[in-house]
Amino acid sequence: xxxxxxxxxxxxxxxxxxxxxxxxxxDIILTTPAVSALRKGLHDAFISYLVEEPYRELIxxxxxxxxxxxxxxxxxxxxxxxxxxxxxxxxxxxxLDFHGGPRASxxxxxxxxxxxxxxxxxxxxxxYDIKLPxxxxxxxxxxxxxxxxxxxALGINVDPPPPLYLPPAQKNEVEKIKKFLEDNGLEGFxxxxxxxxxxxxxxxxxxxxxxxxxxxxxxxxxxxxxxxxADEDRTTEKKILKKSKCSIHSLVGKLxxxxxxxxxxxxxxxxxxxxxxxxxxASTSTPIVALFxxxxxxxxxxxxxxxxxxxxxxxxxxxxxRRCIHEDFRCxxxxxxxxxxxxxxxxx
Length: 348
What we know:
The chain is of the alpha/beta class. Helix content is 35%, strand content 16%.
């Protein structure tokens, strides 16, 4: 559809919209301003969001959505076809494919929606009526702006861009974090939440760097540190606790995503690499010190957050995170604990 064709879309005639965004924490959070803008422009439309099972809690409870559809991460063909049949019966006017992966493209293609909007993707362009670039010809799009471009394509005003939105924690989740803070005597201290996970080796700052940073933080008697991460980070957690030799608290593998948000919101500072929890932190008012390696802040900086971003200007950045041409992950690991500590001092 030509740019002129886009302008002929009448938002008042849009009754049912399906949003698709599979994987992962940060990617889903960065779609929430577009969800808010969509609701503002389509007051009475039925808006559904298709998300993978591990991440449904990021979306459920969003007041701008009428429905949350869930897809299994490792879905069988039979289950996928059943889902597609259900989507076809809904007779959506529009599908916004924020993902663009093979499965999301297939669902969009078979959805029977009147209008399909997605990214310009080689071999899959035929699926979409409106095809949007993932990046501009020059410069960079922030991921939030990328998603807002889908809403703009419907003729909906997105100025000013909305903030991130995550549903509030449930009562039991709030009480769990409150009890943790009380039981460990953290109230009244400057609590620094440190995300030790990486997701992959390209975003792994290294346990020795975390240990050095924690030792620097421990010199301040008013500061307490709390480690967070996933179950698979337990080995790293143990090594950090053993080497640090100072008072550290850890909730690695013990929190769901909303509990992570509640903990961060009750803390003085969040420190971590470009990752899902960093974007969770950006949905709170807690300041952030973020370490950027293979990715660029221009694309993935904490959206509208109080943040200090630390990065090294290297020609190999950004990269596709498949192979480090230097084999030492220098983009992230050349950031020193002293640099990060100095950034932390601004907030603690």
